[in-house]
Amino acid sequence: MVIENERCRIEITVDTTYAVDSADNRYYDVVLNPCQYGRSDVSKTFSIHIDLAYKELRLALIGPFYSYNSDCAVLDDETLTVLQDNSITQVRITDGSILQHKMFECFGCNFAIYRVAKGYVIYGEMEITMLDFSFEKMWSFSGKDIFVSVSDKQPFRISGDTICLYDFDGNYYELDLDGNRIR
Fold this sequence. Notes:
globular; mainly beta
């Protein structure tokens, strides 16, 4: 995933060779392990390359194994918010320090995070979740089946103030940003 603003360009990939507490890992300026994963724990490491106009910073962010690096982050000014399944971490892009971190309750895996006026919408396999800016759960919504598609229908989309969803069986749902079902 590549994300940028007027301050920086950030590329997030998965470091498939990273092992917690190994001396053989590639070099990172900062290693973040907010969930305290150990060597024998199953985890996934995001490699975050931050290119500021005046310096580059390489971060390793260790999180849950079921993490996906497409649509996994939101960049606001100097703050990068990264979703790794049910773990959300906010990082200052200038020095790689953690501003905020939280594990939140959910069903199934989470795929993507989107910033909206009231907080963050989390697109998950089994539920759509709304978190406020402090990462507190405001609401969640589940359908009849999982929110993935084997057809040409887009399973998740935000259009203005409406969240449009298709589940695996082709059922269609529309929610407003307060979690109310419109259709």
